[in-house]
Specification:
By secondary structure, the chain is mainly beta. The strands form 5 sheets. Strands 23-16-17-20-19-22-15-24 form an 8-stranded mixed β-sheet. A 7-stranded antiparallel β-sheet has the order 8-7-10-5-1-13-12, with no helix packed on it. A hairpin with a 2-residue loop joins strand 7 and strand 8.
Length: 285
Amino acid sequence: MTGITITQAGPLTTLQDDGRFGMLRHGISASGPMDRGAFAAAGATLERAGSTAIEFSQGFAFTTDFALQFATAGGDFRILVNGKLRAWASALRLSAGAKVEISPGGSGNYGYVRFHQEIEVPPVLGSRSTNVTVGLGGYKGRALRAGDRVPFGDVGSAASIVAPVAGNEGPIRVVWGLHAELFEPKLRARFIETMFTVTTSLDRMGVRLDDPTSLFRDQRKLGLVSDAIVPGDIQILGDGTPIVLMRDHQPTGGYPRIATLVSADLDRFAQMRPGTPLNFQPVRR
């Protein structure tokens, strides 16, 4: 069977498709791409694309044993094909034996490679997406690593048209969360005035924010009965730390959620590197 061989991979190099929806009631998050717009854009660059991408954060490298078409998108990365620099966010053709090396560039956390053929790993609960936290789906339920051989099957489907990506400027938009009323109006007002910073504590489960004002340090009622959560929820932990829950979030949470990122801005937030300042802007549902 034709395929590619992974020769280098960072810890967050995984297989992701649209996601595993409808399983939250069974305790399983949807997973799927951290930047859904970039995932779709990579597929739309090809005439036909497999449903599954390789998502990576710190770059990765592979060789192919057959002629292959693929496209890239997401973040800003540097790509070499047989040692020659090629344009990022474009469609490329490879001949058998080609070597591809991708490394981080100037911005963004997540990049995507979509292929014109389907990645041939068995779907689990209707999806090939990987949730490494629970060891579910993807390639043997784990992140890809050097030496893995990823097999390919049939040619993919006709690509969908992708709407233009919104600009990367301005506050991250939110709607007030399920537990917003637990926070006094003055505190909520300070929340939208505060400039937070993305920390180095980030993965597919969540992103912790640095709050230089210790806004929630004295907040009471930070422990609740667990209930369902969704990607983009801003959860305030027991020590007052804000954390934005991402695609591999736990199914339930026992801390209050003051707000939830609107889906249109969740991709942009996922691409913010550690040290990036941001603030939130509430919008109407």
